[in-house]
Amino acid sequence: MNAALQGMIDEAKRAWAEQRASGREQITVSIDTSSLARGAEETLAAIRSQAAALNLKVDVRITGTWGMNWLEPTVTVRSAAGTRTVLYGNVTADRVPEFLQATVVEGRDLPELAIGVVDGNATAEVPLLSEHQFMRGQVRRLMANMGTIDPESIEEYLAHEGYEGFGKALEMDAEAIVKHMLDSGLGGRAGGGFPAGRKWDFLRTATADPRYLVCNADEGDPGAWVNRVVMEADPHLVVEGMMIAARAGHAREGYIYIRYEYPLAIARMQKAIDQAYAKGLLGTNILGTGWDFDLIVHRGAGAYVCGEETGLINSIDGYRGMPRIKPPFPAQAGLWNKPTNVNNVESYANAPMIMRNGAEWWANVSNEKEKGTKMFTFSGHVNWPGCVEVPFGPTIRQCLEQWAGGMLEGSRCKGFQPGGPLSGVVTANLDLTLTLDPYRGMGMFLGGGGIVFFDESTCIVDMCKYFLGFCEDESCGRCTTCHGGTQRAVEILRRIQQGGGRESDILNLEKLVQSLVWSNCFHGQFAMTSIKTALKAFRSEWDEHIIEKRCRAGVCDGLIEYVVRAQGEGIDEAADICPTNAFYKDGAGWAIDDALCVRCGACKELAPSSIEVRDRFAARVAAGAAAGG
Amino acid sequence: MQAEPSMQELRELVAEFRPNRGHVMPALHKVQDRYGYIPRVAMDVIARQLNTTPALIYGAATFYTDFRLHPRPETEISWCSGPACRLKGGDRIREAIQQTLEVPLGGESEDGRYGLHIGQCNGTCTEAPQVWVNEKVVGNLTVSKAIRLARDVKGEAE
User: Fold this and answer.
1) Could you tell me if A18 and A53 are in contact, meaning their C-beta atoms sit under 8 angstroms apart?
2) For the whole model, what pTM was predicted?
3) Inter-chain contact A466–B96, Cβ cutoff 8 Å?
4) Fewest 10 Å CB contacts: which of A475, A501, A612, B72?
5) Under CATH, which architecture does the B75-157 domain have?
6) Tens of pLDDT along A392-425?
């Protein structure tokens, strides 16, 4: 190991041990975008001010997420002796006084808020965290430091095996590093699964200079926040991973392209990079080895298509973020037409562990063709929106029932979206595994890890319009197949939703499926995946919409109508809340003017028993069929 | 509404950038961070500073939805367009807010005091369906709650 780096690590470990042996209680609050949305900042401020007011001798620290987003704000309390650490959830600012009273002043657990014991013995009231349903079966490698270290401190990262992988890479030549990556079998983590080692080898063997690295942190798939978790909770993993890739690929400069919607991730990555510069881990003559590498955070500005690697490159290049025509591939002519390697955040973040612990250790965690662990986030109609890291290969059933806490009470899984609006929709086939092949077989893909489950209240036509509307908005405009095709598809879907569906629409949608695959980039090629898969998986629902003019979920605005069934409780409030003043007095009672009603449903929320949502056409269609019959 | 910044002020603001196309977005960000939007004149100044054409700067600035060419309204409701929100009635919430504020998605009131913006999912899906009011999350909405929120925003502004 490089002597300067070893010194840094030793010093960081000493400081960490000293901090752990402070003899004070340590209270650690998870601060990330998910917890901030649930009031973690107020919790942190309340803990600080209350501790000061009560003159409590405690260390108050911050950390990344535990992945239990539905329990945020989460806080751990480590006893003064360091023998016991307990994780608490839902510690909102108003609970802080009793929380501190119990955990610090009285030195006991607060079972009401406790999630589990991180360190120490379980009690009758507080079980071990590792036995929590959400934690069982998880293998946390990328997430190993989350909950422990302060993401804004390079010292704490160094004290937890940080930069040791880079230290090993410093002693190896480029070819050996690439071999390690190839042996590990690490596949691209954004859904493609292309071996990262091969990409690195393209860069290593490129003939032009300078060469560039790009980290794709433009996690645009709505419903996915895997990369955000990594960058907000352990940003140095990405820095170190890119340094290793730079050694392997002889790159002189790297860019981390982060989407605009992740301001905290941008701030934490920038801070991590600044700290690495200050330690001499980035810049010129790194650690006295004569090697130079610069790392730059590049902020996106809201364009989904910049998640496509050549769109991203164009964006850094200062052009509009329109994907290029391939070939040439980025490995031949990428950033400023020089050889460029583009990987996802998670792909880079795995590199330090592969170098540190060996390819075999890294790969052995999974029996599947896909090696290593993968992070997934869950959202939609589930009880526990959260983030997990698991070895490849669990079933959807395990994801849904164990880690996502099952469907919301009273709802049944109708289907799910495996990863982003381009990935398609699947029926509730819970025996599918989370590996690449089953989805490829269905003409779709696994995606970056943002799984969205939906229940029977979801209309499949409306979901498709949502996905296609998104693709239309985010089309860069280059290919007519894509920008015209998505627009046409949205028009057809909208007409179906309005009650104007024609039997030829299915055929036309299928034609669009055939046409869009001729688009230049993934965005256009996969824009129709949701319709393609939904037409197969949920065909009867399409027929209902088009032929029977009926939406079983009661969502499509042209196929339903709101009527006043009774002048019962809440009807006056319902009339008052109506944003379009569609309520009018019909004699003594209220009625709804259908021409003004926008089907927002606010009235039904306030007067559920008085307002009825009913099929608009079903009775007429049936009458017509009877008359014609 | 604030006055447009002067050329001189803008020149100083972007003086650090060099004729390097990689500086187009950082320069636009710097202007937007300072003023909350990108004034028309700033594109000329950036083009001159980077030794390129205003058309290239304008092309980049208009391609991305988060570069704003007009000042932000005083109160902005940013509606989350993500799937978790959508599944929980997000689209009906959008419709109701639009009707209440009487502005389309992406629009603002004539006096510029309130507006409705399209927000992108950033993974705070525990709060779905949600909006951001001046970047602060307001979650677990119902349609009626959203209408009351929009009425408050409108009432405050009136």
Assistant:
1) no
2) 0.96
3) no
4) A612
5) 3-Layer(aba) Sandwich (3.40)
6) 999 999 999 999 999 999 999 999 999 999 999 9
